[in-house]
Amino acid sequence: MADEKLRLDKYLWAIRIFKTRTLATKACDDGKVKLNGANVKPARTVSIGEKYDIRGERKWTIEVTGLLHKRVSYEEAVKSYTDLTSEEDKQYNKQMGASFFTGKRLSKTGRPSKKQRRDLNEFLSDDADTEI
Q1: Given strand 59-64, what is the order of strands in its sheet?
Q2: What residues does each domain of the chain span?
Q3: Among the four 28, 98, 123, 124, which has the fewest Cβ within 10 Å?
Q4: What is the largest CA-CA distance in the chain?
Q5: pLDDT in tens, 57-90
């Protein structure tokens, strides 16, 4: 199977760099995946030994050591590439992981809770009673 073909977007999805194949394709189309400094298309054939720079929400530099045609567990996926990411990029990735936005408000910010509203109403009504 020396002549087996595998698309780059499918490979990046299979090794779990991207959550969906659509995101992998979009990253290639947007120029966020490079081979030797040149942008690559999502349909490019992947070969063992190639080194890719991936710049998305996180930064990776990987070398292909095996080909995966379907998505497998993380433990199996990491056997198919070597992570050559620099220490600077690893620090950046840690920082990005720590600042993950869940879409929820931070605690004790924004609108008051029901208890806070009751306390505020009680305070304001007491204050109004004393002024009369």
Answers
A1: 38-39, 33-35, 51-55, 59-64, 81-83
A2: 8-98
A3: 98
A4: 91
A5: 788 899 999 999 899 998 999 999 998 888 888 8
